[in-house]
């Protein structure tokens, strides 16, 4: 493929559709074109799925001048990134995946747009596979603020809640543009001072929320008295198309780190239904698990933190993480591919008498000195 | 603050000086007015002080300068013949006590304990000027004072202004040409002030008063050097955010076989230089100005060729530490490469080489240039480009065992042995060698080979290493002596025995010649020829073979290993040329080629090495389970781990070693960031729950943070006190035990530190500003940056942070155009400019541009222009536009004269805020100023929004009241439909709107207007048409041009130039042509005034109908009188008499006049006299009268009292 005859930029090529978002997002940020081959080529139903196509469409909406080529069977995708444009974007997300799937990528891209992003995403707000919008709102946003992405209108608002599989939810994500990332030193998470949460329920009895809260508190009260779980029961037009309920728990530390866990009821008509009490209890245990893993960034936002570190100034950034998730590990490899940045990974083993959960990983890197090239100067 | 102290004092002094006023009213008034004045003054002072204070502030930046900074780049610029080379030579001599001939390429020297300098001479080519301005830290601007400023000086200053202003120091030369001291002073002053306006007020201008024996005066040079070595530099945005290398050495690594097959094939080149600016990452993109964009295929750091002296407490450098490094100028000293060590042995300053190396034995050999090069690893290292100016210096390149390899003791023993042997070599052999060389002027060249299909076992590797080093020693020895001794030949012959079947085969083909492949150490012996200019080798070699009876084929030590065995054969001498000859050589050559092509993909000698290194690295770290190994795999950045998947693209490079099957599965699994919980932990169990107790505020706190401990510490801090009254010493603790002492000491220190911190916090709190906080934050970050990777070795460190500035790096680039190597000229700098993550892409750029005020022409839209933007120089087609008040970008045909305008180009993505300059041509030198425009990048985009005005014209063909039918504007109904509702206007200003299309004639429509149109009206529709920018991006490849032609690059021509060159003239519009103006005479109708009006008019204004007087009719004319002669006589007489009478009359009147005049004068005199008399009389009279009056007054005064 002759992209530009005498420019240095060279592309990357990958196999398979796993880590699809990572590749496209990093490609967009680094400006390197990417070619993904053999997308489910051996599958009975080969090629890109609808949700991936929807993701590509979203990417096309927020960028200007992207070139996307997909072959006839959909097993090969070529993506030549354009420049991030931003602005007002509306997108109907595919119902196969929740909005979280799209939002995770958008969080990574939003600070580097030309104009502040105002994205209205419609679809499934909460489902068990992806991080829900509530979780992202309560963890990813404060994390991004640590990197200097802040200002007027940095917000994620859940307008309508739509559970899987019917969807019908709506989320408005607004983000100001940012020129450079601030290097961070998040080496000490501090102690957890409070736990907050949202127990949501739509198209079910409003009592569900209370039942979830009760059971979750039962587990968490062993550790901390300062627990407050909001019940969020949406009605009418704001309640989407499917019934369901769930819980998002966030533990805030003294140093402003957020650890979170969440659990949603199984989508209607898929698998066994769960009791709200069980859900609350299990979710609380998930939070404990998260606390056990520890670190300054919770497991679902590891990659976001690492990306923002990579895109920082040419300074040393440090962040303490829990054990790296497989997704993060792959993300680190991708960062190396796209930005030639390697992280110094130091495992911190807990000492004998310490009761602070499992091993932590101290990630250190030098930023690439990325600056938002899309922003207009006047 | 000084600002508020002064006015107070002033007020007091004023009050004390004033006399104490008595009345309260006055005092209060005065005080009030004084207070007002004082407040105003105080406010002024405060503001001013603050102003001055804040003006000193710069945005604090994190200091990313490494501990050992790269040499300072000093660019010496100036017009030709101004003394640039002389100055550099003098400065080098000043710093290093060494003399340098031709200044080719960068010259790096150690100038002090903390500073190294790299001098670069900038020639007069604008390309060079642009490139060097981007990398300069300090510019020495040479100005010929006898001539004054030249255009180059100003051009360079303007280039600097655009690309970030480095320090500029002017140097005036040719001052000795001034004979008159006054003119000298005047010139100096003039030049200084002009220089100041260009740079800044008070910019340093140096005067070099004159030459002495072709050099500047030592004292002045010394002063200049002192200035340079204490100078501080400002960080420039572009330089600090991009890595760059000013290349001081380059080598062509292309496989010579490939070059032989296709001389124009792409080259693999390694470039060397100090890394500057930011961190350089392996596999990153870079731009070489004048060549193009490339990807780094490999980067290594090498030992510093010009290191700073070790930190010792002494004031000056000793002679040994005054290093000089200029490979392009032929001064290298010791050059360590990845694979070899190059030694330069100049005749004049071989002190240091002698220390490290065997002294030169034979004086005769010094006269000849001997150049050896041993390539240990690289199969394609033959072609070598080190600039060797035609110096008389002897240069030698000798090989040491490679840096990375651990030379075993035995081999080092052998090394010394061989050295001694070589020293003892009989001189007759040397002569022989010289004979060979003199007769043939030949070069022994043989393609080198490397071959490794499989990974080697560790033990094998070590063996290899040993063998290699042995071999190297041998070769080194051979080179040292310049030929091979008999013993060595024997040795090699012995080794030959070890060859397997392959070698026997070879022997069949090539006579006694045995070749083996895998690794060849090749020795070149060059007499006077620079390597690159060598002809295809076999001819010369065969020539040599034929001519000499006994020849020495020096240095070809060939060895081989493969998967199963490792063979090594050295042959250093061959006898019996007659057997070999040309045919033999061809056979050898064929064999070589066959091997070459048999293992095309397997020539990965270096990779293998890296792999080995990586394995070693991993083995080190294997002891502890390593997470980074899990993440990044067993390989290191930048090279393949599994070489069998070589055909895959870069994504395949970073493969993780995991079972194939699982990978297949994973490639298409669900893309989800959730981290599934670990099921092994049962959160119902108490001990599991306990394991995270301390994560909560309710848990146990750490030593330093526990509330109880904090309290205790405070107690400690303030607990110790001595009761002065009782003399009792209260101690918070009783320290007795020895082991506790250490703890106590630490605690004390800690306490002290905290106290100090607290004090500092309190103390600084007073005027701690945002600025100070920010500065402190930056400082902390800088410290962290330095400290983070400090303890690591460089190998590991470069992986994490990239190659840091200050390192001497070797950058390997694949597929450089062959012209780059073939047309290399060291006078033109090669710069490797690193590119940011998106800067390797291309897109539309929106710029703010202003035509340079010194450029004498305006620029035309769509005329190609050469831009210098970022690292790049390229030609592109700009479109100029201006932003209207509603944000529309309207296309301009030409740039405005004295105003900024927008410009949009298709070009490389460069961060906003980067400055650029534009030139119309870079070819040659022209008299006028060459920089056409300057500006800054505003925006980057993948689309453009420029529009140009388009007026569509139509004519009414049917007019109703306010409605008209218009035709001629569009062609079809569809076109009209698109413009329904659009506003239109007539030339006379009547506004209207398009309503609906009409069926006939096609393209006509109904429109309504605010007034009735006339048939003569023209209707137009004003519209905006988007313009596309031509996608031309043409990098200026000036470095690829042949030597001497480098400043002649010319790209796309403008339409105007093309027309001029091809002699094409546009056929002009006939309406635009100038024709002689024929003005018809204006005829006016006669003015007709009605009769009634005529009557009413006054006579003066009434038309006069009187005819002008015609000729007198004949009958009215009087007849002329013709006199009789008698009458004529009478008339003449009468006339004469009359004349006489007249004369007499005239005479008498004149006389009378004179008399009368005289009379009048006399009368006047008399009158005057009379008047005088009368005046006298009057005077007398008045005096008398006055006296009388006086008397009267007196008498009356006197009389009055009498009367009383």
From TrEMBL, chain A:
UniProt entry tagged with the keyword Nucleus: yes
Pfam families documented for this protein: RTC, RTC_insert
Top-level lineage group: Eukaryota
Coarse class of the protein's main subcellular location: nucleus
Compartment(s) of residence: Nucleus, Nucleolus
Gene Ontology CC annotations of this record: nucleolus
Gene3D superfamilies xref list: RNA 3'-terminal phosphate cyclase domain (3.65.10.20), RNA 3'-terminal phosphate cyclase, insert domain (3.30.360.20)
Biological processes annotated in GO: endonucleolytic cleavage of tricistronic rRNA transcript (SSU-rRNA, 5.8S rRNA, LSU-rRNA); ribosomal small subunit biogenesis
Biological role: As part of the small subunit (SSU) processome, it plays a role in 40S-ribosomal-subunit biogenesis in the early pre-rRNA processing steps at sites A0, A1 and A2 that are required for proper maturation of the 18S RNA. Activates BMS1 by promoting GDP/GTP exchange. Does not have cyclase activity.
NCBIfam families: 18S_RNA_Rcl1p (TIGR03400)
Protein name: RNA 3'-terminal phosphate cyclase-like protein
RNA 3'-terminal phosphate cyclase domain sequence ranges: 14-345
The family this protein is said to belong to: Belongs to the RNA 3'-terminal cyclase family. Type 2 subfamily.
Subunit structure: Part of the small subunit (SSU) processome, composed of more than 70 proteins and the RNA chaperone small nucleolar RNA (snoRNA) U3. Interacts with BMS1.
Keyword annotations: Nucleus, Ribosome biogenesis
Molecular function in Gene Ontology: RNA endonuclease activity
PROSITE patterns, A to Z: RTC (PS01287)
Domain RNA 3'-terminal phosphate cyclase insert, chain residue ranges per copy: 187-291
Signal peptide: none
InterPro entries referenced in this protein's UniProt entry, alphabetically: RNA3'-term_phos_cycl_insert, RNA3'_phos_cyclase_dom, RNA3'_phos_cyclase_dom_sf, RNA3'_term_phos_cyc, RNA3'_term_phos_cyc_type_2, RNA3'_term_phos_cycl-like_CS, RNA3'P_cycl/enolpyr_Trfase_a/b, RPTC_insert
Keyword Nuclease: no
UniProtKB/TrEMBL annotation, chain B:
Listed GO CC annotations: 90S preribosome; nucleoplasm; small-subunit processome
UniProt feature, compositional bias: Basic and acidic residues: 474-485
Stored PROSITE patterns: G_BMS1
Intracellular or extracellular location(s): Nucleus, Nucleolus
Sections of the chain in a coiled coil: 1157-1184
UniProt keyword Coiled coil, yes or no: yes
Domain annotation Bms1-type G: ranges: 69-234
Reaction(s) this enzyme catalyzes, per UniProt: GTP + H2O = GDP + phosphate + H(+)
GO biological process: endonucleolytic cleavage of tricistronic rRNA transcript (SSU-rRNA, 5.8S rRNA, LSU-rRNA); maturation of SSU-rRNA from tricistronic rRNA transcript (SSU-rRNA, 5.8S rRNA, LSU-rRNA)
Molecular functions per Gene Ontology: ATP binding; GTP binding; GTPase activity; U3 snoRNA binding
Region (Disordered): 399-429, 446-509, 729-749, 1185-1204
CDD domains: BMS1
Cross-referenced SUPFAM superfamilies: P-loop containing nucleoside triphosphate hydrolases
Keywords carried by this UniProt record: ATP-binding, Coiled coil, GTP-binding, Hydrolase, Nucleotide-binding, Nucleus, Phosphoprotein, Ribosome biogenesis
Keyword Signal assigned: no
InterPro entries hit by this protein: AARP2CN, Bms1/Tsr1, Bms1_N, BMS1_TSR1_C, G_Bms1/Tsr1_dom, P-loop_NTPase
Signal peptide, first to last residue: none
Biased composition, class Acidic residues, residue ranges: 452-473, 486-509
Stated family: Belongs to the TRAFAC class translation factor GTPase superfamily. Bms1-like GTPase family. BMS1 subfamily.
Record's protein name: BMS1 ribosome biogenesis factor
């Amino acid at each position: 493929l002759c992209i530009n005859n005498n420019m240095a930029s060279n592309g990357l090529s990958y196999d398979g559709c796993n880590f699809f978002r990572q590749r496209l997002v990093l490609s967009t940020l680094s400006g390197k074109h990417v070619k993904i081959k053999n997308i489910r080529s051996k599958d009975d139903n080969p090629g890109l799925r609808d949700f991936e196509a929807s993701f590509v469409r979203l990417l096309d909406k927020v960028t200007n001048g992207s070139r996307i080529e997909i072959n006839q069977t959909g097993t090969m995708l070529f993506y030549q990134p354009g420049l991030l444009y931003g602005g007002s974007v509306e997108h109907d997300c595919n119902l196969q995946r929740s909005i979280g799937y799209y939002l995770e990528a958008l969080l990574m891209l939003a600070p580097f747009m030309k104009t502040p992003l105002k994205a209205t995403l419609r679809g499934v707000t909460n489902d068990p596979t992806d991080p829900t919008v509530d979780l992202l709102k309560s963890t990813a946003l404060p994390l991004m603020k640590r990197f200097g992405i802040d200002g007027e209108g940095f917000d994620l608002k859940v307008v309508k809640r739509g559970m899987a599989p019917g969807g019908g939810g709506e989320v408005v994500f607004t983000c100001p543009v940012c020129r450079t990332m601030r290097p961070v030193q998040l080496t000490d998470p501090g102690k957890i001072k409070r736990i907050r949460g949202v127990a949501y329920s739509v198209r079910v009895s409003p009592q569900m929320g209370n039942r979830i809260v009760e059971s979750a508190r039962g587990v968490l009260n062993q550790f901390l008295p300062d627990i407050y779980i909001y019940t969020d029961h949406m009605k009418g037009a704001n309640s989407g198309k499917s019934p369901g309920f769930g819980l998002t728990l966030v533990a805030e530390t003294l140093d402003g780190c957020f650890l979170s866990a969440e659990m949603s009821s199984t989508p209607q008509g898929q698998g066994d239904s769960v009791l709200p009490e069980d859900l609350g209890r299990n979710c609380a245990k998930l939070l404990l698990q998260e606390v056990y893993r520890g670190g300054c960034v919770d497991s679902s936002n590891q990659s976001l933190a690492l990306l923002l570190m990579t895109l920082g100034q040419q300074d040393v950034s440090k962040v303490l993480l829990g054990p790296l998730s497989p997704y993060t590990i792959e993300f680190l490899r991708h960062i190396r591919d796209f930005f030639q940045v390697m992280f110094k990974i130091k495992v911190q083993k807990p000492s004998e008498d310490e009761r602070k959960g499992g091993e932590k990983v101290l990630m250190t890197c030098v930023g690439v000195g990325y600056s938002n090239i899309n922003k207009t100067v006047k | 603050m000084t600002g508020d102290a002064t006015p107070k004092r002033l007020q007091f002094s004023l009050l004390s000086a004033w006399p104490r006023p008595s009345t309260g009213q006055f005092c209060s008034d005065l005080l009030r007015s004084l207070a007002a004045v004082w407040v105003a003054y105080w406010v002024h002072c405060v503001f001013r002080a603050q102003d001055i204070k804040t003006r000193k502030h710069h945005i604090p930046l994190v200091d990313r300068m490494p501990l050992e900074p790269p040499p300072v780049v000093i660019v010496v610029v100036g017009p030709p013949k101004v003394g640039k080379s002389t100055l550099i030579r003098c400065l080098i001599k000043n710093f290093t006590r060494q003399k340098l001939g031709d200044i080719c390429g960068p010259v790096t020297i150690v100038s002090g304990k903390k500073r190294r300098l790299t001098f670069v001479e900038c020639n007069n080519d604008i390309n060079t000027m642009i490139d060097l301005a981007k990398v300069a830290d300090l510019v020495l601007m040479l100005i010929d004072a006898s001539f004054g400023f030249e255009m180059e000086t100003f051009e360079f200053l303007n280039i600097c202004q655009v690309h970030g202003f480095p320090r500029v120091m002017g140097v005036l030369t040719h001052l000795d040409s001034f004979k008159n001291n006054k003119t000298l002073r005047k010139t100096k002053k003039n030049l200084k002030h002009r220089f100041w306006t260009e740079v800044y007020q008070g910019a340093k201008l140096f005067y070099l008063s004159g030459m002495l024996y072709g050099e500047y005066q030592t004292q002045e040079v010394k002063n200049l050097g002192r200035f340079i070595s204490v100078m501080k530099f400002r960080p420039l945005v572009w330089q600090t955010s991009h890595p760059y290398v000013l290349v001081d050495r380059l080598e062509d690594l292309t496989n010579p076989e490939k070059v032989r097959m296709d001389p124009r094939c792409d080259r693999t080149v390694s470039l060397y230089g100090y890394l500057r600016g930011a961190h350089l990452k392996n596999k990153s993109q870079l731009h070489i100005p004048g060549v193009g964009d490339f990807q780094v295929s490999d980067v290594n750091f090498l030992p510093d060729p010009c290191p700073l002296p070790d930190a010792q407490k002494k004031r000056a450098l000793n002679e040994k530490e005054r290093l000089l490094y200029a490979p392009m100028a032929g001064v290298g000293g010791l050059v360590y490469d990845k694979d070899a060590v190059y030694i330069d042995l100049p005749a004049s300053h071989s002190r240091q080489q002698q220390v490290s190396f065997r002294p030169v034995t034979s004086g005769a050999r010094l006269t000849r240039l001997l150049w050896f090069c041993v390539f240990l690893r690289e199969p394609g290292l033959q072609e070598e480009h080190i600039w060797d100016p035609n110096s008389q210096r002897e240069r030698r390149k000798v090989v040491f065992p490679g840096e990375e390899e651990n030379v075993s003791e035995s081999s080092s023993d052998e090394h010394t042995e061989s050295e001694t042997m070589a020293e003892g070599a009989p001189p007759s052999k040397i002569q022989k060698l010289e004979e060979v060389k003199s007769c043939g002027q030949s070069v022994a060249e043989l393609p080198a080979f490397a071959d490794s299909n499989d990974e080697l076992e560790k033990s094998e590797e070590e063996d290899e290493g040993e063998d290699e080093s042995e071999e190297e020693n041998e070769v080194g020895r051979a080179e040292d002596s310049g030929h091979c001794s008999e013993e060595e030949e024997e040795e090699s012959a012995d080794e030959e025995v070890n060859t397997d079947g392959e070698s026997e085969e070879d022997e069949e083909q090539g006579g006694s010649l045995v070749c083996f492949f895998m690794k060849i150490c090749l020795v070149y012996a060059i007499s006077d020829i620079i390597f690159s200019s060598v002809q295809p080798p076999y001819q010369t070699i065969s020539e040599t073979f034929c001519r000499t009876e006994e020849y020495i084929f020096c240095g070809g030590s060939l060895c081989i290993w493969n998967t199963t065995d490792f063979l090594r054969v050295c042959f250093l001498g061959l006898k019996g040329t007659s057997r070999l000859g040309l045919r033999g050589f061809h056979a050898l050559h064929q064999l070589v080629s066959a091997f070459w092509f048999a293992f095309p993909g397997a020539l990965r000698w270096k990779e293998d090495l890296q792999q080995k290194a990586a394995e070693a690295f991993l083995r080190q770290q294997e002891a502890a389970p390593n997470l980074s190994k899990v993440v990044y795999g067993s390989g290191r950045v930048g090279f393949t781990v599994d070489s069998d998947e070589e055909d895959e693209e870069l994504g395949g490079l970073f493969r993780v070693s995991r079972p194939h099957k699982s990978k297949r599965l994973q490639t298409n699994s669900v893309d989800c960031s959730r981290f599934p919980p670990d099921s092994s932990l049962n959160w119902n169990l108490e001990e599991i729950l306990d394991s995270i107790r301390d994560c909560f505020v309710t848990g146990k706190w750490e030593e330093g943070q526990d509330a109880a401990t904090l309290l205790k510490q405070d107690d400690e801090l303030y607990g110790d006190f001595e009761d002065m009254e009782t003399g009792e010493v209260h101690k918070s603790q009783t320290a007795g035990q020895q082991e506790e002492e250490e703890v106590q000491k630490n605690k004390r220190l800690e306490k002290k530190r905290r106290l100090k911190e607290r004090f500092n916090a309190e103390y600084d709190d007073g005027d701690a500003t945002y600025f100070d906080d920010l500065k402190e934050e930056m400082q902390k970050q800088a410290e962290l940056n330095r400290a983070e990777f400090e303890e690591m070795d460089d190998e590991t460190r470069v992986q994490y942070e990239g190659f840091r500035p200050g390192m001497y790096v070797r950058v390997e680039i694949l597929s450089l155009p062959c012209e780059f190597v073939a047309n290399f000229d060291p006078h033109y700098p090669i710069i490797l400019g690193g590119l940011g993550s998106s800067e390797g892409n291309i897109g539309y750029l929106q710029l703010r541009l202003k035509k340079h005020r010194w450029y004498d022409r305006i620029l035309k839209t769509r005329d190609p222009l050469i831009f210098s933007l970022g690292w790049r120089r390229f030609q592109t087609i700009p479109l100029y536009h201006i932003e209207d008040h509603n944000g529309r970008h309207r296309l301009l045909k030409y740039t405005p004269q004295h105003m900024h305008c927008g410009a949009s180009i298709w070009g490389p993505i460069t961060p906003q805020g980067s400055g650029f300059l534009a030139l119309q041509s870079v070819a040659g030198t022209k008299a006028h100023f060459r920089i056409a425009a300057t500006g800054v990048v505003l925006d980057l985009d993948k689309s453009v929004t420029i529009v140009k005005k388009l007026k569509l014209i139509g004519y009414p063909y049917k007019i109703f009241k306010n409605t008209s039918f218009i035709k001629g504007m569009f062609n079809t109904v569809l076109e009209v439909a698109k413009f329904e509702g659009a506003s239109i206007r007539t030339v006379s200003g009547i506004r209207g709107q398009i309503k609906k299309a009409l069926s006939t004639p096609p393209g006509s429509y109904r429109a309504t207007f605010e007034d009735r149109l006339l048939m003569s009206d023209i209707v137009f529709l004003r519209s905006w048409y988007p313009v596309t920018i031509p996608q031309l991006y043409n990098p200026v490849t000036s470095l690829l041009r042949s030597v001497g032609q480098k400043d002649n690059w010319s790209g796309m021509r403008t339409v105007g130039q093309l027309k001029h060159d091809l002699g094409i003239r546009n056929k002009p519009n006939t309406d635009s042509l100038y024709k002689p103006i024929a003005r018809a005479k204006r005829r006016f109708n006669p003015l007709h005034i009605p009769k009634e009006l005529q009557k009413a008019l006054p006579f003066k204004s009434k038309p006069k109908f009187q005819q002008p007087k015609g000729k007198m009719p004949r009958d009215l004319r009087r007849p002329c009188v013709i006199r009789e002669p008698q009458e004529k006589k009478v008339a003449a007489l009468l006339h004469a008499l009359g004349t006489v009478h007249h004369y007499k009359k005239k005479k008498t009147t004149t006389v009378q006049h004179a008399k009368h005049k005289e009379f009048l004068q006399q009368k006047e005199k008399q009158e005057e006299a009379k008047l005088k008399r009368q005046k006298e009389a009057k005077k007398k009279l008045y005096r008398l009268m006055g006296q009388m009056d006086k008397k009267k007054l007196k008498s009356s005064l006197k009389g009055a009292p009498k009367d009383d």
